[in-house]
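2024-03-11 09:14:02 DEBUG pipeline.ingest accepted 1 chain
2024-03-11 09:14:02 DEBUG pipeline.ingest length=401
2024-03-11 09:14:03 DEBUG pipeline.predict start
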Amino acid sequence: MTASGGPAAQLRDQRLANGLRLITYVDRTTPVAAVNIWYHVGSKDERPGRTGFAHLFEHLMFQGSENVTKAEHLSLLESIGGSANATTWLDRTNYFAVVPAEWVELVLWMEADRLRTLLVGLDQENLDNQRDVVKNEKRSSYDNQPYGGAYIELFAMAFPKGHPYHHPTIGSMEDLDAASLHDVREFFSTWYAPNNAVLTVVGDIDEDAVHAAVERWFGPIAANPALPAHPDLELKAPLGPTRKTIRDRVPDPRLHVAFRLPPLGDASLAAAEVACQILGSGRGSRLHRRLVRDEQVAQDVSLDVLAFAGGASLAVGAATLRPGASPEQLERCYGEELARLAAEGPTATEMERALALIESEEMAKLGDPEELADEIGGYATLLDDPGRAFREVEIFRAVTA
């Protein structure tokens, strides 16, 4: 067990013989079941010249397997009142569904079927089709989106060339064009294995029945005994101030900033998150009061934390210049507010507000089976600590001014 008492002690956490980690948690609040499977593979695990594969499989996994036809995965779930989706990021790829609790085995069967037999349906036509889908996603989400390339630029500047976090998760379109069917099949066979996955089921479930179903459908799937090690995420030198000016078609200039932070699991990351709440969260934040309301140099302002498994997490922020204001003044004011918090510290009222906002967010996650399954699976995958999902509030409460 992950804790001696409390909700975390109610987690049932075990491994199948093939290495699949199964975690269940009973929540009788609503008659639903959330199924979430984290594969410990993200864009950090891609080879140079073959970027974008992790995200490509987020799409290919919905294109049919031996017993589920193309697009049937989603249509079957929708027909019973359920929903499903997937996401890809630097450290992981995860697939999740919420269904009426009595249908939980259907989700488990479909997840096992595509893990076991996806390559049966993966042909050149499917690859070409989903490659085009990813290209269109890049055009709509990055290339033709106002300020859409900002994160790509920030990551490239924050992590040096050659670092696993340097390239964008969406990948290089040139790399995807160059990818052969063999390359893509090899990526799946390498990383999509039960011993590289955490399966979490949360909700109004019969745990014994869920464990039996998982053993029945996932148990026969072979492990990958040659699962590669994840790449070295160490950053060998301080970043140093780095800046870049980008000419774009948007009418209003925007300042984007990124700061390296400690990685996920480091005790001081929670303090950085509280600081970012005080600085950039909502109309009561320091940056909003100074830049938007008082000096009126910005139309909007933000500062958020992106937590990563190794190397460094990032604080990323932005502020859109108000027409007629000076870009230099905007940048100066933004920097001064960060320096002022470091020099003077927060007030008791600011600490109380920030911690109340964070606690509200964390409690909302605990009350949502889908969010809770994701949190449990994420902490199990990246920190080997699924019970941390229930300790987040106390971790933040321990942060002092």
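2024-03-11 09:14:41 DEBUG pipeline.report The chain has 14 helices and nine strands.
2024-03-11 09:14:41 DEBUG pipeline.predict end
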